Structure formats: C-alpha cells, structure tokens
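request received
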Amino acid sequence: MRGKSSGRGGGDKLRRAARILGFVIALVCALTLIGIYSGTALGTSQVQNAAPDTPSNLATEFPQAEPVLHATFSDLNGGQGQVLYMVYDLSTGGIVLQDAPGPSVASGSDSPYTIPTGTLVDGVTYKWTARSFDGSAYSAATTEPDFVATSDSSTSSLSPTSGSGVQAATANPWGCLLDADQPHASAHQKKFIAAHSQVACTSLPPGGMWIKQDQNLYRSSYTGWRFVAENVSYCTSRNHSSGQDAPVCRPGDYVPMEAWVHWNCVDAGFKNQWYNYRQEDSGEIRSGGVSYFAYDAAQSGDWNANGTVKCGLYL
Amino acid sequence: VSLVIDDTPSTDPTPLEWWAGHVIAGKRVRSWVPDVFERYTRILHPAYVREETPQGIVHQSVTWRELGRWSGKALTAETCIDDLLVRGDGLSWTERGSPPKQGQLDPKYMRRLVTLLAPTTDIADAVWFLVWAGYGSMRSARREEAELEPNISWRGTGRTYLLFRGTIGSSVDKDKRNLLGDPLRPMTRPPSFWWPMHRSWFVSTDIDSFSTHVGGSTSLISRLLEDDVLEAVPVRLDDLVDSCADEKDKDAETP
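response:
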C-alpha cells in the first residue's frame, strides 16, 4: 500500500512540475508574442510617411495622335509612387480627366500618362495639372498648368523641322529662287494671317516665263501642323493671274512673281488666340519648254511651342 | 550714293531705346514713327504699268495721283491703295500693270530718298536698320539672341527684327554690299525702320505697307514733299496708315 501511496506521491510532483513548466512556457510565449507585437507597433509609430514632392519636369509630347503628359515622381522617403493628372477645359473649367494615373515608378522617375483617344474635343483648349501619390499620401498639385493646347482630330504629317531655306529652281539660267517669308499678322487685312512668297532672280528673266506657286498655310496644334489655307496662283506670259489671292506678276522683272496666302483667323473663330504658323511653298517656272521646280518653307515658331502670333491684331 | 549695311546683326538693343517708348504698334502714323519730330510725311510707293518695248517688257512707275485719275478716286493723306486699284466699272489695275511694292520702296525711290537724307546725315555717323527677321532672305543672318521687338506692343504681330549697323555715303559705291548698287534690283534686306545715330530723321516701312513714313525737321520734310521723283503727302501722327481696312474690320482690336 505504501509503495502505491509513495508511487502516487511521486506522480503528483511530476504533474505539478509539468504544469508549472507548461505555465512558464505559455507565459514566456505570451510575453514573447506581446513583445513582438509591441515592438512592431512601436516601430510603425516611429516612422513618419511624409508626402511626396510636387511633380517636376512637366512636359507634353505629341508622338502620336494624342498627347502624352510627363511629370517626374519624387519622394524623400524613396520607394515607389506615381503621378496623377488632371486635365480641364480652359474656358469652362470642366474637368475632363481626374487623377488619371501614370505608372508606379521609383522616386526620380518619369510617370507619364497618355490621354486616351476620343477624350479631347476638337477646337477646345485644355490645361493640365499633376500631383504625386506614394500609396498613402498626396503631394500638392503643380501650381501652374504645364501647357495649353487646342485639340485637333486631324493630324498633319508634316515635319516640324524649320524651313529649308531659300531654294533655287534648280539649274535655271536666270538664278531664280523661290523665297518664302514667315507668316505674320497682316497689317493690310486686319483679320488675316498672311504669308508672302516670291520668285526672285539674279538676272533678268524672259518676259514670257510661266510661273506657278502653290502655297499652303498651317497653324500649330498639339498634334502637329494643321492645314488652314492654300493658294495656287499663276503668272503667265500675258501677266494674267489666278488663284484665291491674286499674285503680283511682273514679267521680265527681277522679281517676276509675288504671291500671298491668307487665312481669315477671326472669321474662323480664332480671334485673340495664339499660334505659330508655317508656310510651305512649291514653285515652278517654265521657259523655252523647260520646267524648273523649287520648294521653300518658313514658320513663325515650332508646332509644339508657345504660339508667337495673335489672331485679330489691329495694325 | 551708297547705303551699306553690316552682314552681322547687333545683339545690343540700346540704339532702339530712344524711340521704342514713343510708339505703340497699331494703325496710326504714331504707331510706326516716334512722335518726336517737327513734321511727318508719307511716301507713296509707285504702282507699275507694263510697256512692251523692243528690248522687252518694261515696268514704268505710276504715281498714286495717276492711279486716282484712272480710277476716279481722290487722293488724301489716308488713301488706301486698294481703293485706287479698282475703277467704278470693276476694271482692275492688274489688267494694265501691277500694284506698288509692299514693305519696301521702289529702288529708284530708295536711291532718291537716300540722296535727300544724306546731307542731313553726318557721313561718319552710324545709321541703324531694323530688318524684319521673317524674310526668307534673312535666314542665314538670323540668330535668336539677336531678334528684337521695339517694345511689348509688337508681341503677337509676327514681327521681330534684326538690328544692323550701316552707313549712308554720298559717293557712288560699286561695292556689292551697297544696297543701292543696282538701280533696278530690289533690296534683299529692306529695312522696316532706319534712323541715324543722331536722330535727325526716322524712316518706317512696315512689311505689309504700300507706303513709307518719314519723320524729320520741317526743312527735310519740305524737301521730300517738293521732290520731283518721290510722291509724298504730308501726314499727322493720328492719321490712319491703312484706312481702307478700317471700314471692313470694325471688330478688330488693338493689340
């Protein structure tokens, strides 16, 4: 019996020790868990997520039919983030795109956004602003919109390069050149943008020379140069001229032909609007059964730069 | 006479400063000539009539008074050339010849004007020329840092200029740089504004204008008005430069 009792007394000790050990283990685990949690929570509260910087390096590109807005995301904390764009109608203030997102990028990288086709309406002027977003905080928006553009549904395929210079009607014996001037606000026809071009020769050409000029006038738009007017005109041996705008024909003179292309920008609804303009002129002279050709172009500024000519000036 | 302009434009706008504050781009004489002179005149660029000769076609100059007689219109200080080039029966002058040159004087008139200006200009003086930068012939000389506007009112007109230093001489100069070297050939760089260093006169020919305005002393303007070669009429600072368009474009604005 004693042995049994004794045996029962040793088993109790073991069970008590096991319970104590289990409690201690559970306590340690609990404290450990509490400690881990507490440490994580403290760590989180000690790191302040500062808002990212206002986007920089704003730019607009026109690689295709629709513009691409560019802005650089930057955040002092480093890490990823994106630029959000807002596009609005300048005249009404109506928002066309709100928080349109550029891709998530590393700090210091461009986060561009391509305006979807069909978003912009032809003939409407837009502006845009941008702000940065790092996943939890926003920057201030850019204070000045980066660009003003007028939408166009049609796109000219013309090169935006500057004029090719005064061109010789190749190998003609009179040294005749086709010389296109820069378009400008006309002081003679107040509502018009005008561009002048002439055939000028270094020696007196024959009075019977046949001359043609085909002038095309373009205005800038964010999709490229946009055609606005054409004038095809002729000077014949009889000095009769034709075309939308009659040229000045002086057969046998050093300047046997002057021609103009005009665009009534006021009646077209562009009064007080600023654009750049480009004239392209193809010329042909014929004499003695031989034709000579030339091309020249001149522009007031680039197609994607701020306009330098205002419509409707009263000079 | 000789009229020589440097090849390279100046980047220093200082020579403009004395008059740039006296003009505001617009439609009146005072828009194009500073209001600092005793008198002003408008030199009317001649039109041309074609004449067949054994040597070929010749373009004889025609005065505005002759055009007025042909068209039955009166000539005033503000006459617009468009009104003189069409008759009441619809006949256009282009059937007989061509209109005046726009933006530059006829070479014969230019030579005469320089001859009349030369005595009032010290040969040692520089003469300053503002040439429109938009001429196709100016591309080789064009540099962004050299392009000038007289003042902010020119902004948006499509008119920036290059400033060249030059001289007026009384001798016959055959140098190819003499812009008056060929009495028939038009200038490749017709100046829009030119004046001597000592500011005794001022000449203005806008790129779109069919006439040239001159400001100067009473004696100089009198000589221009009385000259046998030039056709000139007296004008006041508030006269319209191109009044024909005023009636057509009442909704147009000043810059």
